[in-house]
Design goal:
alpha/beta, globular, 993 residues, eight-stranded mixed β-sheet, six-stranded mixed β-sheet, 3 domains, 43% helix, single chain, Nitrilase/N-carbamoyl-D-aminoacid amidohydrolase
Length: 993
């Protein structure tokens, strides 16, 4: 048996995405490899299937390594440090440096680095092929206690070879590991038990492991019970020998490559017998391991009162695997006969033991849980653009300060992780502003951020803690054409490097200082930083520049030191060519798929490159080729671009429903399902949303929400006349506060204590390019969004007035989102006059049947009419009996006329009417056909000086039960009107009087 070219292609596909999301990817190296992808993979396949194994030790195959900063350690502190507060980080650094030098000439801060792999693409492909063909068998031997870095699998437990990326997403298993530990503590404490909780992690885990145990039969066969075939054993040997050869080329001479994803599988296996011992011998209330982070919770039945007592008891239950380490570093050592030269040490300074009971124990656990909830809420929320730019600098100081943040994990004893999380949260917000807003709309906020970044981050020691975010800031500044500030940032980074060179000792983790070549460490680090900055600039460089912007760019480049620029070409033409190349390979700042989404959804993207490189079809299995061919047919291409076949950020299911021309047609089900299988490896477990019936169709969406009570949130939201005119004239929105107001409103819905099922916003409420991001945030909380989007301009003088509905469903076996778009069929009289007077525009709807489409959303049937369409008596008549509720987004000043329409519609359609009008005019309401007049307005709102939401519940089950009787019973609703016929699919068992 030999590995096929398709095996190589699918291994590369996973490897590309894994590498793209590591801490030190080289997008240029990926693009170079992909330029001759088939030839490169054929050559590697020939080597793997050949008889020789010496090639795995060749330096060109292995690649190299870089040094990445971790922290700067200050050796001494002055007694005045707690009394004197210095606001400027640069001044504080100089003060520390000078004081240490005064105390002793050789006494200097220590800049600590971590050796990180920069493997060749060939080695990444080999390691991913190993995970797909051999490593998954090792991974399958792990118990459920191992949460982190688990390979992606199908529902039946088999490896998912079609999925993008090798591993399950990071966040979900991490939260499960953490939350289940806390839950076990809560439960035990609520039962008035005394418990002990231990948290620990391994020091320099990857650097201290010897991977030879993965070839040791005592481990593979004896411990795991695995029997590898001949080809599998050969592939396993090639991979492990390559890992050892790479380590031999580094100054450490040992360890696993940090940054090579497959290293995580080996690291997990090294601790498998620790997992088994904890589960079988200790039998705790909870044990979980996230890679090298361990959490153990057990009853304190032995009455442990000191760490020594506890550890001695655990040593006795570990089958000799845990012992007290007798080396220089105090701690607990884990060992096994097959681990050879590996050194797995849980250092004392990282081990924490908590003795918990009673009220004090519950208070501590609840405090941690509250911090977790608060941080999770911040990440779930939409970015909130401050009203004043000065607030951006304040947020930066808060995010980078040492004190003031609580821990969201038992293991955290300092706030470094929290500071990183705070800064990452602020940076995420800024990146969202860049996607959603025109650069001029938030220029002052950006400039304030850059100034704060220069002062508080690009200075020692702060830079070492936040260096991983530098390239994201570089990409942001480049994409927004802030070229002057970009040059300042690059110069400041150069100053930081020089400051390390002149002011600090250098230390590499797991490397004795006496053997260290400081100049080599700094040379490799500075070279890596320059290369990363250059790639970040290329990936985000604008595709179009005005003559004045070209002059500004040239001036910014001229201000840089020639040594900083190095051999990189920074002329505009070269950067644009480089950017287009990365974009074509889905390696640029903006994903390639954006080029194929409707222009109203994506802001500021230039035209699609006409010469996209094609994928060699010999590298893909038939099922992938079929799915991709469906997609290129939808987007108007003849051949499959390599960036879509090997994507880093593929289409989502919701986006496929947008690009597919007839997404809900029954004959499109197979195509969309095949496209998702090809793109993401997701198999269909039930039906995707589909249109049922040739005339007056129903859009059917599967949903697991069985509740007959639906909670509706009405958004009292104001769109100014100026925003409306700007939308008509295709000008920049003059309401610069609109974005902040909208995000605040959506965050209010997300943070509601009661679960909202639907949020409805008025007609023409939001720009189309804001809709998807808002909908995704709401969907994460199980909220479906129905909102009018601004006019969409088509052709010469044509517009569309649409309402979009983002509806949750679970056709893939997990929560997903579908976008349904419905056109307004006729303009209101005043609306038509204004559009013609201002811009000569006319309505150009895409479909004439949509207002009669009934949406069956998990058993809840509703329809949408846009504002003046409510006055169409034919629409109302044809919907009667088919719907539980009618949603009516409006921008309507004639509230008196519509008040009568809403009140009569609730009775003659005999359904709930959900009307959402612009806040300027109000009268948004949920109207019900109740018998008692005082109950009919479930919600009715008008006025206010700020945007807000109000929620109301509608009882769908009760309405259906009432309507299912042959003769209407006595309440709670008004009798059904004459001629009422109930759709069979809505019928339920009526109640007995």
């Amino acid at each position: 048996m030999s590995w096929t070219l398709v095996d190589m292609g699918m291994a590369y596909r996973k490897a590309k995405l894994d590498l793209y999301y590591t801490t030190s990817p080289s997008v240029t190296a990926i693009a170079d490899y992909e330029a001759n992808l088939e030839a490169n993979l054929r050559a590697l396949r020939k080597r793997i299937n050949g008889k020789s194994a010496d090639w795995v030790k060749e330096p060109d195959f292995l690649g190299g390594y870089v040094y990445l900063p971790t922290t700067v350690k200050v050796v001494t502190r002055s007694e005045d440090d707690d009394e004197l507060m210095v606001s400027a980080p640069a001044d504080l650094w100089r003060q520390i440096r000078d004081r240490m030098a005064t105390e002793a000439p050789t006494n200097r801060p220590t800049a600590e680095f971590r050796l990180t792999a920069k493997c060749s693409i060939d080695l990444h492909v080999l390691s991913t092929l190993w995970m797909m063909k051999v490593g998954h068998k090792f991974d399958d031997s792990l118990t459920v206690s191992a949460y982190g870095n688990r390979l992606r699998r199908q529902a039946n437990g088999g490896l998912n070879e079609l999925s993008l990326g090798s591993f399950s997403p990071y966040m979900a298993p991490f939260r499960t590991w953490r939350d289940e530990g806390l839950s076990s503590m809560r439960k035990a404490l609520s039962e008035d038990k005394r418990i002990v909780a231990i948290t620990a992690d391994v020091s320099s885990f990857y650097h201290e492991l010897d991977p030879r145990f993965m070839q040791d039969s005592a481990f593979v066969s004896g411990v795991l019970g695995l029997e590898l075939t001949g080809p599998e054993e050969k592939l396993n040997g090639l991979f492990i020998e390559a890992i050892r050869a790479w380590a031999a080329l580094t100054p450490l001479r040992r360890g696993l490559p940090v940054g090579l994803p497959a290293s995580a599988v080996i690291a997990n296996m090294a601790l498998i017998e620790l997992d088994r011992a904890m589960e079988r011998e200790v039998v705790p209330l909870y044990y979980g391991r996230y890679v090298d982070d361990i959490m153990l919770v057990m009853e304190n039945g032995k009455g442990f009162s000191t760490p020594t007592e506890l550890w001695n008891w655990l040593f006795s239950r570990s089958n000799g695997r845990l012992t007290r380490d007798s080396g220089e570093t105090e701690g607990v050592r884990y060992s096994a006969p097959y681990l050879g030269d590996s050194r797995i040490l849980f250092a004392n300074n990282k081990n924490k033991i908590f003795l918990l009971h009673g009220v004090s124990g519950r208070v501590m656990v609840e405090s941690i849980a509250r911090q977790i909830h608060q941080r999770a809420s911040e990440w779930r929320s939409l970015p909130n653009l401050p009203e004043h730019a000065t607030a951006v600098a304040t947020e930066m100081v808060t995010a980078t300060q040492i004190d003031g943040e609580g821990a969201d994990n038992l293991r955290k004893t300092d706030s470094l992780t929290m500071r990183r999380a705070g800064f990452a949260l602020q940076l995420r917000d800024l990146e969202a502003y860049e996607r959603d807003l025109e650069p001029e709309a938030w220029r002052e906020h950006r400039l304030a951020f850059y100034e704060a970044f220069l002062e508080h981050v690009l200075v020692l020691p702060n830079f070492f803690e936040l260096a991983a975010y530098l390239t994201r800031v570089i990409r942001l500044a480049t994409a927004c054409k802030d070229f002057e500030k970009l040059a300042e940032i690059v110069l400041a980074v150069t100053d930081v490097i020089e400051s390390v060179r002149s002011d600090c000792h250098v230390h590499v983790k797991s490397k004795p200082t006496r053997e260290l070549q400081t100049s080599m460490v700094l040379r490799k680090w500075s070279g890596y930083v320059r290369e990363s900055i250059y790639e970040a600039v290329v990936s985000a460089f604008p595709s179009l520049l005005s003559p004045s912007e070209v002059i500004r760019w040239d001036a910014a480049v001229a201000s840089l030191d020639p040594l900083t620029v190095g051999h990189f070409r920074l002329d505009v033409d070269a950067l644009m060519v480089g950017h287009d190349r990365l974009f074509a390979h889905d390696l640029a700042y903006s994903p390639l798929r954006f080029a194929f989404l409707p222009p109203e959804i994506v802001r500021g993207l230039a035209s699609v490159p006409t010469d996209l490189p094609q994928v060699p079809i010999s590298l893909m299995p038939l099922v992938v080729r079929r799915g991709l061919k469906s997609i290129i047919g939808w987007i108007g291409l003849q051949m499959i671009p390599i960036g879509l076949a090997f994507p880093t950020r593929p289409f989502s299911l919701a986006e496929l429903f947008i690009v597919a021309p007839r997404p809900f047609a029954l004959d499109s089900q197979k195509e969309i399902s095949g496209a998702m299988l090809a793109l993401r490896g997701f198999s269909l477990v039930s039906r995707l949303p589909y249109l049922d019936g040739p005339t007056n169709p129903s859009l059917v969406l599967q949903s697991q929400d069985p509740s007959s009570m639906k909670r509706i949130a009405l958004g009292s939201w104001k769109t100014t006349d100026g925003s409306w005119v700007a939308s008509v004239m295709r000008h920049v929105d003059p309401d610069q506060d609109r974005y902040r107001r909208l995000n605040t409103l959506i965050n209010e819905a997300i943070s509601q204590s009661g679960e909202i099922d639907y949020l409805i916003l008025p007609e023409l409420a939001i720009p189309a390019n804001w809709f998807m991001r808002i909908a995704q945030k709401l969907q994460a909380k199980g909220i479906s969004l129905i909102a009018g989007v601004e006019y969409l301009h088509y052709g010469d003088g044509g517009i569309r007035n649409q309402v979009w509905a983002a509806l949750g469903h679970d056709g893939l076996g997990f929560p997903s989102m579908t976008i349904y778009r419905q056109d307004k069929q006729r303009l209101a009289l005043h609306e038509e006059q204004q559009l013609h007077r201002l811009a000569g525009l006319t309505l150009d709807p895409t479909s004439i049947e949509q207002p009669l489409t009934v949406i069956d959303h998990g058993g809840f049937s509703f329809a949408i009419l846009v504002c003046s369409e409510l006055t169409n008596i034919d629409y109302r008549a044809q919907l009667r009996g088919r719907i539980d509720a009618l949603f009516v987004p409006e921008w309507n000043r004639d509230t008196t006329t519509f008040e009568a329409l809403i009140e009569s519609a609730a009775l003659d359609i005999h359904a709930y009417i959900v009307q959402c009008n612009d806040r300027e005019y109000g009268d948004s309401r949920i109207r019900a056909p109740y018998r008692d007049a005082w109950k009919r307005d479930i919600v009715k709102i008008k006025g206010g000086v700020r945007d807000y939401i109000v929620t109301g519940d509608i009882d769908v089950g009760s309405l259906r039960q009432f309507q299912s009787s042959y003769r209407s019973p006595d309440g709670p609703f008004k009798p059904v009107p004459d001629g009422f016929f109930m759709a069979p699919g809505r019928r339920s068992l009526p109640a007995r009087d």
